[in-house]
Amino acid sequence: MSTRRDFITKSLVTVGATVLGANSVQALTNEDLFNKISVRDNDIILFQGDSITDSGRDKNNLNPNQTGAFGNGYAQIAASHLLNKFAKNNIKVYNRGISGNRVPDLLNRWQTDTLDLKPTILSILIGVNDFWRTMDSNAQNTPAAFKSQYQKLLDETLKNLPDVKLIIGEPFGLKDVKHVTGTWYPAFPAYQEVTREIAKEYKARFIPYQNIFNGSLKRAAGDYWTTDGIHTSLAGSNLMAESILNAFKMPNE
Q1: Where is the signal peptide, in residue numbers (predicted)?
Q2: Residue 9, number of CB atoms within 10 A of its CB
Q3: What percent of the chain has a predicted confidence (pLDDT) above 90?
């Protein structure tokens, strides 16, 4: 396994077991244990994932830092903010999300769409389709298989990019908004738990999108934040962008 995984196994797991108790997986994602990501000169930031990241991007435009290459979702909002705040650092920001993708799809295109770009900061949001296709297309999958595939993806990443800073986003769904029905439960949360475990295992920043969206329901109904329980409205995209930007140390912080 990778050095990063070995480190987590030997140290943070012990800390979680002895200090944080049963809720250690969630607790280990707190800012107290994982420092914010510092942006350096010439950093390459890559957003990867499925349709939530894709968000209608122009797939013929593979250039960094261009509006059309980002679609109209959270990645575009987050990228525009990063490019503004770090204008002096000559950063490049890419979006390579593709609608409908599951982890096996990422594995199939990882060399071209990730490794060849040599990102120094890599954000991944994947998992909702890995579960959803078992509901609407009779696909065969389990949380254990999902985890094994995700580990393979990250092991390959760290083999080629040992110093990359990882951000793992939690797949989310807002119950009783169109596609996300009661039939998703209790199976879907097991896939979400895998992403928390993965973030802990690989010492990645974890974005708990489900909790973030659940909290947003105190301000507005689910169909205000998403169009169908999964894909975000303009407000939901901004909520996601705010959340991922919080993983970065901004200038003068």
Answers
A1: none
A2: 12
A3: 84
Report yes or no: 37 and 86 within 8 Å, Cβ to Cβ.
no
d(CA 50, CA 133): 13
Cβ count near 125 (within 10 Å): 25
Q: Position 36: which residue type?
A: K
The residue ranges of every structural domain in the chain are 3-249
205 is written with which tokens? 């920043």
Place of tokens 């409205």: 233
- Residues 184, 179: Cα–Cα separation, whole Å: 9
Of 27, 47, 135, the C-alpha closest to 98 is: 47
- Using CA atoms, how far residue 188 sits from 20, 123, 133, 158, 208, in Å, is 25, 21, 11, 27, 14
CA distance 206 to 185: 22
Quickly state the pLDDT bin for 34 (edges 50, 70, 90). low
210-239: pLDDT as tens digits: 999 999 999 999 999 999 999 999 999 999
CA distance 154 to 200: 13
CATH class of 3-249: alpha beta
